[in-house]
Amino acid sequence: MNxxxxxxxxxxxxxxxxxxxxxxxxxxxxxLEQQIVENVAAGMSKxxxxxxxLRAFGNPSVVKDETRDTWGWVRxxxxxxxxxxxxxxxxxxxxxxxxxVLVMALxxxxxxxxxxxxxxxxxxxxxxxxxxxxxxxxxxxxxxxKINASAAGVFAEWKKESTHFSDLAIFSFRTEYNLSGxxxxxxxxxxxxxxxxxxxxxxxxxxxxxxxxxxxxDRPSANGTVVLSWGLWxxxxxxxxxxxxxxxxxxxxxxxxxxVMPAWFAYPEQRAQLWTPIYHEEAVGEMQALDSHDFGAIGxxxxxxxxxxxxxxxSVITKRLHDEHKDDPFVSxxxxxxxxxxxxxxxxxxxxxxxxxxxxxxxxxxSLNVASLLVAREATRRxxxxxxxxxxxGKWRLLREHLMExxxxxxxxxxxxxxxxxxxxxxxxxxxxxxxxxxTIHIDGWAMAFAGGLVFLCAIFAGATSAxxxxxxxxxxxxxxxxxxxxxxxxxxxxxxWLLSVEVALTAVLLVGAGLLLKSYKQLRTVDLGCVTDxxxxxxxxxxxxxxxxxxxxxxxxxxxxxxxxxxPGVQAAAFTRMVPGEGYGGDSGFAIAEHPPLPExxxxxxxxxxxxxxxxxxxxxxxxxxxxxxxNQRLDKADEVVVSAELVRQYFPGENPIGKHLLTxxxxxxxxxxxxxxxxxxxxxxxxxxxxxxxxxSIYDGVANGGTLAVRSDRDVTALxxxxxxxxxxxxxxxxxxxxxxxxxxxxxxxxxxxxxxxxVLAFALLSLVLAASGLFGVLSYVATQRTTELGVRMALGAQxxxxxxxxxxxxxxxxxxxxxxGLAGGFASARLIRDLLYGVKPLxxxxxxxxxxxxxxxxxxxxxxxxxxASRMDPMRALRNE
Amino acid sequence: xxxxxxxxxxxxxxxxxKTISLEPKHGWAIAKRIQQISxxxxxxxxxxxxxxxxxxEQRGWxxxxxxxxxxxxxxxxxxxxxxxRAQLEKEAENWNRLSAAINLVVETS
Lengths: 884, 109
Fold this sequence. Notes:
The complex is a heterodimer.
Chain A: H1 2-15, H2 17-41, H3 46-57, H4 60-69, H5 74-91, H6 94-123, E1 134-140, E2 150-151, H7 152-161, E3 165-172, E4 175-179, E5 188-195, H8 199-203, E6 209-210, E7 225-228, H9 230-237, E8 247-250, E9 253-260, E10 274-277, H10 278-281, H11 284-288, E11 293-301, H12 307-324, E12 334-339, H13 340-380, H14 382-390, H15 395-431, H16 445-471, H17 475-483, H18 490-526, E13 536-542, H19 551-567, E14 571-577, E15 587-593, E16 605-612, H20 616-619, E17 624-627, E18 641-645, H21 646-652, E19 662-664, E20 670-677, E21 691-695, E22 707-714, H22 722-732, E23 739-743, H23 744-751, H24 753-787, H25 789-797, H26 802-834, H27 847-874, H28 877-882
Parallel strand pairs in A: 5-10, 7-9, 16-21, 18-20
Antiparallel strand pairs in A: 1-11, 1-12, 2-11, 3-11, 4-5, 6-9, 7-10, 8-9, 13-22, 13-23, 14-22, 15-16, 15-19, 17-20, 18-21, 19-20
Chain B: H1 6-19, E1 25-26, H2 27-37, H3 49-59, E2 62-68, E3 74-80, H4 82-108
Antiparallel strand pairs in B: 1-3, 2-3
Helix pairs in contact in B: 1-3, 1-4
C-alpha cells in the first residue's frame, strides 16, 4: 500500500501544512539538542556547544525550506501565491482586467454552451436500452426517393419474415387529435403518434405509471386506449395518477388512459404528446397497402445480427413484394437502414458542428486578444522585469508569473463563462424546442471539465505567448532600451502583429461563413412561393369523424364557415385547403392519363394532392395559366374535374394541351383537367413539384376531407381578424379547436427557422470577432505610435510631411491586417465547402459575399488604424523630442 | 549552504538507505553513523540530511515513526520499506559497478 501512504502524506502536507512544519521543527530541534548534548559531553560550554552544533548542521531555516520543498504540494502552494500576485497586479489595472475577463467569459461561455449542446444532442447515446442495436428502417423506392417512408403492408411482411430483429415497430408522423375539454377546459389539438404496441418494447422503455400497449389493444376491434406523455399528463391532468383507467375523448371518441411515459421520452417526434395503437386507429386497408408510403419503422437487431445483414434481408423481402405486384408501380424495390441515432439527429448534425466551430474560432480570437493585451502590458513593465532578472529573479519564476496572471484572467473568465453558458443554454433550449433531444441538454460534470480545460488552455496559450517575448530577449539590451526610448521592442511588436494577422484571418473565416449563411437565409425568405403572402392568415381545423360522420355534414360546415368568414368586415377573400404553400409536402398520389398509352412497367406519374375550394386560387393570388377553375357544384361522387399546376403539364403533358384530358387516380376515377394554374412551392427551400388540385367537396375513400387549413386574406393587418374568425368557428361548433393560427409570413418563417438561427448565431460571433480584431489593431498601433514617438519626432523635425507620417503609420497597421485577410479568405474558401449542405441558392464561393467581407474587414481595419496614425502625425515634434 | 554536490547527492540516498537498513534510526543518529563509518571523510553538513530524508519518504522508500528515543524524548525514527530495500539493492549494485569502473580507470592510467 505504498501509494496509499504517499497519498496520505501528500494530503497531510496539503491540509496540515502547519502541523507538518511544526513536526519538522521538532525533528530538527531534537537533532540540535542531541548534538549539543554530545558537544557538552566533549567538554564545551553550553554556548559553545550550541554554536558548534549549528555550524555542523548548517542554517536550520534553509534546511527547513529545502525539506519543505520535497513535500508533494509545495509547488502548488507557490502557484497559489503567484496566482494571488497575478490577481493583485490585475486588480491594479481594472479596466484591462475587466476587458480581458469579459472577452474570455464570452469565448469560454459560448464554447462551453455549444459543447454541451453537441454532447447532449449528438454524442450521448440515445436513452433507450442498448441503443446501438436500434435501426431506423426505410423503403428504397428509386433514386428520387432513396430513403422513403414505409408502407404498412410492406412492414407487415418485414415483421413476419425477417430473422435479424428481436422486435420491430411501426408508427405514424404528424398525427394530431382533438382533445376534448372537460370541466371548462378548452378543446385542444394535440400532436400525437400512432404506433404499434411493440414500439415501447422495441425501444426498451417503461412507463412511469400504468402500462404500455399490449397486442390486444392494437387491433381494430379493441377498445380505444391511449398512453400519455409526462408533459401532457402534468399540464392537462395535473399529474394526478387517478387518470389511469379514466376515459378521455380524442376526436370525439372515448379512449382509456392506460399509462404515462417518463418526462424524457419523446419518440418519434419531439412534440408527440400521446400515443395510440396504430392498428386500432388506421383503416385495415391502409395497414395492408403496399404502396402507401406513410409510416416510419424501427427494428431492434438480435444479438450477433449486423446492420448490413438486416438491410440485405429487408431488401430481399421488399423486392419479392415488388416482383409479385408488377402492376402497381408504387411498390418499392428495396430497403434501407440507418442507425436510429443518425436518424434522430441527422438534420442538426452539420449546423451544430458549424456553430461549435464558430464558437471555437471566437474563443481562439478572444485568447489571442488577451495574449496581445498581455504583451502590451508586458511592455510597460519591461524595465521592472529586466531589473528583477538582473537582480537574479529566476527565469522560470518570471515565466510562472506570466502564466499565473493569464491563469487568473482565465479563471475569472471561466467562472463568468459558466454563467454565460448557463444562460446561453437556457436560451437555446427555449428557442429550439422542436429539435430532437433538446430536452436532454444541461450543464453536467463533463461541461464543467470542458470549461476547466478551456480555462487552462487559454491561460497557457495567452501567458506563454506573452512570456515568449520577454525570454527571447537579453536583459542588458532591455535595460538599455528602456534608457533610450526609441526603436523599442521590435520583437514584441512583430509578435503582436502576427497575433493580429491570425485574428484577422479567423475573423475573415467567420465573416465568410456568416455571410454565406445569411445570404442563403435571405434567399430562402425572399423565395417566391408562387402566391400572395402579405396579410394572409392561416389556421388549422380538423373535423372529428365521430361528430362529422356524413360527408354532407362536412360540406355544410365548410360552406357555412366560408360564407361567414367572407362576410366579416375586412376580409377580402377566404378559402379552405389541405395545406397552404410553404407548409409542407402533405401527400401525393400516383395517376395515369387516360388518353395516353399505358406506362411501361416500373414507370409512374406522381403528383402532390390538394383539396381546395374554388375560391382558393383567387384568395392566395395563384394565377390561372390556362383554361378555367371548377365551380362549387363539384361535390361528392359527382365531382369529376381537376386543376393541375404548370409543372405537372411540363412534366407529363410536354407539347400537349392538357385541357380535357383525364387523370385516373384516387379511387381509379377519371378526373377531367379543366385548368392549369401557376406553380407554388410546398416548402420555401424546395423547387415546385407537380400538383393536382381536387375540389374540396370531392368524396374520396371515406368521404370528404375532414380537415385542413383555412386561409383568410385582408387588405390591412390580418392578425386583427384572428379573433373574429375563431369566434365564428366557436359559434359553428364549440367543441372544435383551432390550432396554429399563423400569418403566411410566419408559416414560411417556421420552415426557415433553422436557417435563420444558424445565420444569426454565426453572424453574432463573426461581428464580435470583428470588434475584437479591430480593438486589437487599434491597441497595437497605438502602442507602436507611442514607442516610435522619438523616431517620428526626429523625422518630422528633419522635414517629414505629416501626410507621410500618416501614410507610414497606416501602412504599418494595415499590413498585418492584409496578411490576415489573405490567409482568412483562403480559410474561408475551405470552410465554405464544409457548410455547402446548409446553403440554399448560394454557391460556396459566392463572389459578393467574399467581396463584402473584404471591404468590411479593410474598412474596419483602416478605421481602427486611422486614429492612432492620425494622432502620431499631429504631434508636436519638439515635445516628442523633449520626451527623451 | 549545506547543499551537497551532485555526486554526494546521489550517493547520500544510498548512504541513508544503507544506514537504516539494519534498524530504524532518527536523523541525528543517521548523520553520526555516516560520519563514523566513513571515518570522518564524508563531511556532509548534517542539515542536508533532512531534505534527503523527506524526499526518500515522499518516494516511499523509507517510512517514519515518532518514538521515544534513548534520552526519553520523542524523535522521528526512519526505517526501510520493501520498496526501499529493493532500491537499496539497485543503488548498491550501481555504486559497485561505478566505483569498480572508476578504480579501473584510475589504476590503469
